């Protein structure tokens, strides 16, 4: 079992992974950001550009903020997986998540990368403020039906940081293959 991350470890991971994401994008040309790089997880979906990964990261972080807030409010299914899918079947949940991801990147398709990075910065500041506002007891609340870590609120924050890192790794590999 992975030990529970401390507040300081969460802040460090959120900061480090966001800086890593920003460095990756800063090192790319505008052409790199617009070039299709990674396949969609939805059958028939278009290839994702690097810039689409920014839009996705933005949507996911805002979603996780909502999950945290719904958990704190005592909702029965803060992540919404069980309510929307009717089960916690991994394949069914993945299909629902992938469809949602496609809608998120479509929403921001024409946004410049610089604008998306600004929105990501604002969103990260909101995430850090939310984290700072919570007591250790609130961080240890369990988010019902959560597939992340041990299902605690602190695990949701850890997943936000991990998500940024995953996308940097995927983008790096895709660019190396291209």
What are the key terms here?
8 helices; mainly alpha; 178 residues; 67% helix; Four Helix Bundle (Hemerythrin (Met), subunit A); globular; two-stranded antiparallel sheet
User: What gyration radius follows from the Cα positions, in whole Å?
Assistant: 16 Å
Biggest beta sheet attributes: 2 strands, antiparallel
What's the average pLDDT? 92
N/C terminus separation: 38 Å
Quick summary:
The chain has helices spanning 7-26, 30-34, 50-72, 81-85, 90-107, 113-132, 136-139, 153-177, and strands at 36-38, 48-49. By secondary structure, it is mainly alpha-helical. A two-stranded antiparallel ribbon has the order 1-2.
Give a written overview of the molecule.
- The protein has eight helices and two strands, in the order H-H-E-E-H-H-H-H-H-H.
- It is globular.
- Strands 1-2 form a two-stranded antiparallel sheet.
- It has one domain (7-37, 45-177): Four Helix Bundle (Hemerythrin (Met), subunit A) (Up-down Bundle).
- By secondary structure, the protein is mainly α.
- 67% of the residues lie in helices and 3% in strands.
């Amino acid at each position: 079992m992975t030990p529970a991350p401390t507040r300081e470890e969460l802040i460090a991971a959120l900061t480090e992974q966001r800086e890593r994401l920003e460095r990756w994008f800063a090192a790319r040309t505008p052409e790199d950001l617009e070039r299709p790089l990674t396949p969609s997880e939805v059958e028939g979906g278009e290839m994702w550009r690097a810039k689409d990964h920014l839009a996705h990261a933005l949507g996911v972080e805002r979603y996780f903020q909502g999950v945290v807030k719904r958990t704190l409010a005592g909702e029965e299914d803060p992540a919404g997986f069980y309510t929307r899918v009717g089960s916690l079947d991994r394949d069914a949940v993945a299909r629902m998540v992938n469809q949602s991801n496609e809608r998120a990147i479509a929403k921001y398709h024409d946004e410049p990368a610089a604008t998306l990075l600004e929105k990501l910065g604002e969103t990260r500041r909101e995430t850090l403020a939310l984290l700072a506002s919570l007591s250790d007891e609130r961080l240890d609340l369990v988010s019902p039906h959560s597939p992340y870590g041990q299902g605690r609120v602190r695990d949701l924050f850890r997943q936000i940081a991990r998500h940024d890192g995953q996308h940097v790794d995927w983008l790096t590999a895709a660019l190396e293959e291209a």
